[in-house]
Design a protein that fits this description.
By secondary structure, this protein is α/β, with parallel strands linked by helices. Helix content is about 40%, strand content about 15%. α2 crosses α3 and α2 runs parallel beside α14.
Length: about 325
């Protein structure tokens, strides 16, 4: 499998990474979004992903107040993965915090992820109590001290990303990546120019929710009764309402049609579409079977005609994305 360069760094990543939000053990406000996974399942998900060639893992401070990071480390150790063999990405949580918190709290990230180095450290969202420039310069201090290998941001629009790039340019550094939502059901970064801007600036795009948290697998369209089994938080989100199922059905049916042609699953086709756009896809998994299904996308290569069909049927979601 061909690895892709992350931004202007020397890091080489598989086109698909494993998202680790679901490893939060049900802790905290964000952690309760997913039912807690047991240790054996977490280890199986990580091991299956590694066996398929996935070499990077995306976690965050906010995912269970460090529980996801610690669960990831436990699973990597169980899989006998040596530090430096894989790439670890985590995130600082900006809510109600100022820029000094980036450095003041970083030892917690190091402790949670030890012995694995933090390769990519990201600002989870742009809404801190300090300006973009102050936050990104704090990240630059971590980079200069050798405590991280690359600086990333998440959920930054073009204006904020431009400010971050300018601030780092003065430090002779660069933003490696911008983690944003992107899928067949949310193509807004194409419409607003962010995807093109990132490409022009050599900022890698890391796509979260490339499967729209299961919608693009088609399982909820085929069996709407599954919606009743979702966590209370998820059950009332707009994306899981009947209206959304009807609006997204043409896209899901097109994905299923291409999947049949490819001898693949709908999830694999949806992930392959994202990766074919030159974007890194972050897919979570709550079982070894899901991880196996997701990583199968690395072997799916959509034809130009199939890409065009999927582009056409999903055009409306450039301006009216699923939320």
């Amino acid at each position: 499998m061909e690895l892709r360069r992350l931004g202007r760094t020397d890091l080489r990543l598989s086109p698909l990474g494993l998202g680790c939000w679901q490893f939060a053990r049900g802790r905290g406000l964000t952690g309760s979004y997913w039912p807690a996974l047991d240790e054996a399942t977490t280890r199986a998900v990580v091991a299956t992903s590694i066996e398929a060639g996935v070499n990077w893992f995306d976690t965050a401070e906010a995912y269970g107040q460090g529980a996801s990071e610690r669960s990831l480390v436990d699973a990597l150790r169980a899989a006998e993965v040596e530090p430096g063999r894989i790439v670890v990405a985590t995130k600082w949580w900006p809510t109600l915090r100022t820029s000094p918190s980036v450095l003041d709290t970083f030892h917690h990230r190091e402790e949670a992820l030890r012995p694995f180095p933090i390769d990519l450290h990201q600002v989870h969202h742009p809404y801190a109590l300090s300006p973009v420039e102050a936050v990104i310069r704090a990240m630059a201090k971590l980079k200069r001290k050798g405590r991280i290998k690359a600086i990333g941001v998440s959920n930054y629009d073009q204006g904020r990303l431009e400010r971050a790039l300018l601030a780092l340019r003065e430090e002779e550094l660069h933003v490696a990546s911008n983690q944003v939502k992107y899928s067949l059901l949310d193509r807004s970064i194409e419409a607003n120019g962010l995807l093109a801007f990132c490409r022009n600036q050599r900022v890698s795009v890391l796509a979260y929710s490339p499967l729209e948290q299961g919608l693009l697998s088609g399982k909820y369209h085929r069996a709407p009764e599954l919606l009743k089994k979702l966590s209370l938080v998820r059950r009332f989100l707009p994306r899981y309402q009947e209206e959304t199922l009807q609006r997204t059905r043409p896209v899901v049916e097109a994905v299923e049609s291409v999947a049949a042609e490819q001898g693949a699953t709908p999830a694999q086709v949806a992930l392959s579409w994202v990766m074919a756009k030159g974007v890194f896809a972050i897919a979570g998994a709550r079982s070894a079977d899901q991880a196996r299904d997701n990583t199968g996308a690395l072997e799916v290569h959509l034809t130009p005609a199939q890409m065009s069909r999927l582009d056409e049927v999903s055009t409306a979601f450039r301006t009216q994305p699923v939320r």
